[in-house]
Structure formats: C-alpha cells, structure tokens
Amino acid sequence: MQASKRSKPEPAPLAPIKVFGVVPLVEIAPIHLASEQIYKGEAPVFLGGIPSLFTANANGLADVSGNAENVALRASVDHPDLRIILTVTEGLYRIVARRSAGITKIADLEGKRIAVMPDGSSDFFLHKMLKTANLTAADVVIVPIAYNTPVTPMVAAREVDAVATWEPESERAAEAFGADTIEFDGKGIYREVYNLNTTTGVLADPAKRASIVAYVRAIIEASRRITADPKIGYSIVAAKSGLGPEFVANIWHHHTFPAVIVPDLLDVMVEEEAWLAAKSERPARTREQLATLIDDSIVREALKED
C-alpha cells in the first residue's frame, strides 16, 4: 500500500497591521506597492510618520511607519523603544539656487536666504553642504519652511535665493528659477536614509511580528520590481501625489531603493545625533546607545524566508 503524502500545513493568517507615512512622497513608493499588490495580509497606508507610532489619530496607532533617520533620532529621545527595521529608500538632496544672486559655488551662499525645514533632514543636509565651504548656518539667512510648504511662490516673489529640501519641492524650485538655476547635489556628502520603523512593543507581539516580517519581505520584492521597472514607481507616486508621471520621472533618479539596513546607518546617525544634540542643548547619545535603535532581526528573517 502506497504511503499517503503529508500535506504542508497552511500558514496562519497574517494579523492586520497599520502603516503610516507621508503618502505622496517618492520615498514611500515601495511601501505602497507592497501594501497594494504584494503583501498577502491587510496593511493599509495612512498619512503620518514616526509620531503615529506613539500618538493615535483618527486611523489609530501605527504598527510600522516610514520616515527619515533624522525623525527617528529626534523621536527616540522621548521614545527609546523606537526601532529602525529596514532602509526603504535613499534620497539624494540638492540645493537649488538663483545664479543671478551671485551664486556659482557653495561659498557664495554666505549671506544668502535659504529656504529649509529647521532641524529636519534637509537642515542637516544644508549643514553638511555649508561645511564643505567652511560655512555654518550662522553665515546664511535661514528662511524656515514646513515639509509641505510650496516654495514656488517664495522663489517667484524673490523671497529666497536658494532652496534646500527634498523632492518634489526641489524640482519645483528649479522650475521656478528656470534658466537662472544652479544646483549643488549632496552626492558623497549626505543622503536621506528613509527607513521603516516600529516599536519594541509591537515586535513583542508574536502575531504582529510575523506580519511585519512578511511585510518587510513584500517591501523587498516591491523594491526589486521598482528598480527593475521604474515606470511602476512613476505611476504609483503620480497617483498618490497628483504629480504628472513625467514630473515624477524627472525626479526619480534622486532616489534608490536598497531594501536592506544600509551598512553606514549607524555612522550617519552618530554624526547627525551630535548635530541635533548641540541644537537642542542636550547631551549627545553614545554610539552604543544609538545602536540599540537599529534592529536587523526582521530583515534577516525576511531574507532567510525569501
């Protein structure tokens, strides 16, 4: 008599998770693709970020959220239970400036009005760029903006001489400056490290942890697809942001989608922590303390099962 084959047990259903991030940005494209087309469970994406892990809004609390390393550093001062579990996107920032304001090199930014989001990743980027010309923020005029401040009217009204921010506002600023544009990119100096974040409390829940491992695996697959065929990403970002696909295509090359924890993440965080601590007049955390904020166990588990 032939032995019957044992059937493989069905995997347990994935527990629902809530995902938060700034919905229209390029950085979040792999997250949208993972939630909508790849992940087998329920993982809606809501507007928010790391603060959504700790403060509920109408959509509740986040289980995971997308944000830059800068936001993780600032939030983890009060919430040391925050954990970075995956680098989704790297964003290459640039300074876009008005050439006719006498700007042909970084050193020419001295005394100029620069639109930037104070204390954010673009502010740290500006700090790093100015440092290459032995300048500091005290040598320029900071014009503060929020993450969603339209810069085009500021450029048109000649209220600023330069803009240091992320996409799409950098591209909009370049369009507004027109033929008078000069750009300085941060390649080799600074790039945004946009991560997926969660908390130790969420990871301590076995059902949620299993869902997050599966979700990270879906993001890894989404990143592969978007890298192989960027048009998939163009259409996602265009639909979420209201930007035209051609506009999205023009800014796409300022981003990469590694879907790992980038090897120099801790180095970036140590340097940025010192800058943030000085601005906040608090002691900087040690390298060892910052290292606890990075948990690579989720991505290792996701890759093992990939």
UniProtKB/TrEMBL annotation:
Q: Which residues form the SsuA/THI5-like domain?
A: 69-166
* Alphabetical list of SUPFAM superfamilies matching this protein: Periplasmic binding protein-like II
Its domain of life? Answer: Bacteria
InterPro entries per record: SsuA/THI5
Pfam families the record matches: NMT1
Its name, as the record gives it, is: ABC transporter substrate-binding protein
